[in-house]
Amino acid sequence: MDTIASLFSFITTPVSWVIVQFHSVYGKIFGADTGWAWGLSIVSLVILIRICLIPLFVKQIKATRAMQTLQPEMKKIQERYKNDKQRQSEEMMKLYKESGTNPLSSCLPILAQSPFFFALYHVLNGIATGKTIGVIDDQLLASARQAHIFGAPLAAKFTDSADKVAQLGATLTDVRVVTAIMIVLMSGSQFYTQRQLMTKNVDTTVKTPFMQQQKMLMYVFPVMFAVFGINFPVGVLVYWLTTNVWTMGQQMYVIRNNPTPGSKAQAAYLERLQKHVTHHGKTRSRREKGIVKAIVSKGRDRNEFERKFINGLTKAGLAAQADGAVVKSDSTTVVETEDGTSTTTGGAVPKRQQPKRQSKSQRQSGVVKAGEPEPKTSLTKSDEPEDAKPAAAKPAGGGNKPGAGTRSKAQSGQRKGPQRPKSPSKK
């Protein structure tokens, strides 16, 4: 650990200076030698660091989304070149380069936070051993050694002996109870954060190895925190618990307001957005317009939840425009099906009125009641009188001979129309 501490010694002085500045503020409120003053100084240090890391967190989200999008292509490359690992790596790097994605971008917040973590550990270890470090002089060192959080000194560890804990003015039971509770909370917050990511903010339509890796990390990380947590001082546990809670809250905000396309979080978000837009009849913010614009631009590439959102607006008499605006629509209602095709459901188009059915006597007499449409028949007759039509040529003899021409009436058991001559019977 001394080697690691020496590697991050360049940041030890800034970290100790920030803690001292916060301690001077909280010391005036709670007392300079109290655990609240030193504990809140560490919490404030975490918040300050995490605020500075927000741009990296945004990059992490974009990188994670990009990796999720590339998972189908990566799976194809792995299957195509499963016997040629070198070619597989080359194709993977080519895919990353073409898409502008860096797999290490998802680890940027953790990597950027590591120097501060080790610097704080080095500062607290110096307090435990009674060594001044950074801007912490002898007076501040004595004050920090007297600070206790719920009866546990800042520099005490779960694995410390009873004699070492007694030198810090505490009992072994208090230290182990406080550190055990903090380790459980630290591991539990890490597990909940990862589980929330897997159950709500992952595209459920694509099954990839990336999802299996994330699911495995959901169980591995809490175990790692529990194992390493017994060797962390109480001050470092405060630091790590605070950063886990911050990450959990930050992720809850992102999942609620910027969910992954195709995830359950997106379904819930679009349902809320649909109710909001339907209630007001328009998009009221630039963010809402941007989301509607992105959904409209996808066209037939919309997922199930996005199609449901568009259909919900359409059924409410609203139409989403290409610029993200939502306007009232009186035109034909067009609803998208699951395969992306569009079907017409009627909307504001009036239904065709069917004429009332008339009685047989009315149809024969041709009388139409007032207010009723004139009946239309499928067969149109000529307006010429019967006498004007040329008489049909009659055969000689003034009558129809049996079997000549087409019979006017079909005999019983025979079809109407010309009959096919019977074939002679074979004897």
Can you tell me the residue ranges where pLDDT is under 50 for at least 5 consecutive residues? Answer: 342-351, 377-413
Task: Please tell me how large the radius of gyration is.
Answer: 41 Å
Ends apart, CA distance between termini: 117 Å
SS element count, helices: 15
Task: Report on the architecture of this protein.
With 427 residues, the chain is mainly α. Helices cover 57% and strands 4% of the residues. The chain is built from 15 helices and six strands. The chain has helices at residues 2-7, 12-30, 35-52, 54-80, 85-99, 108-129, 138-146, 162-167, 172-200, 209-229, 234-257, 264-280, 286-298, 304-315, 360-365, and strands spanning 148-149, 152-153, 318-320, 326-328, 334-336, 342-344. The strands form three sheets. It has a two-stranded antiparallel ribbon. The protein has a two-stranded antiparallel sheet with strand order 3-4. A hairpin with a 5-residue loop joins β5 and β6 (342-344). α12 (264-280) packs parallel to α14 (304-315). It is elongated. The termini are far apart.
Provide a concise account of the structure shown.
With 427 residues, the protein is mainly alpha-helical. 57% of the residues lie in helices and 4% in strands.
Write out key terms for the chains shown.
427 residues; mainly alpha; two-stranded antiparallel sheet; two-stranded antiparallel ribbon; 15 helices; 6 strands; 57% helix
Which SSEs are present, and which pair or pack?
Elements: H1 2-7, H2 12-30, H3 35-52, H4 54-80, H5 85-99, H6 108-129, H7 138-146, E1 148-149, E2 152-153, H8 162-167, H9 172-200, H10 209-229, H11 234-257, H12 264-280, H13 286-298, H14 304-315, E3 318-320, E4 326-328, E5 334-336, E6 342-344, H15 360-365
Antiparallel strand pairs: 1-2, 3-4, 5-6
Helix pairs in contact: 2-3, 2-6, 3-11, 4-5, 6-11, 9-10, 9-11, 12-14
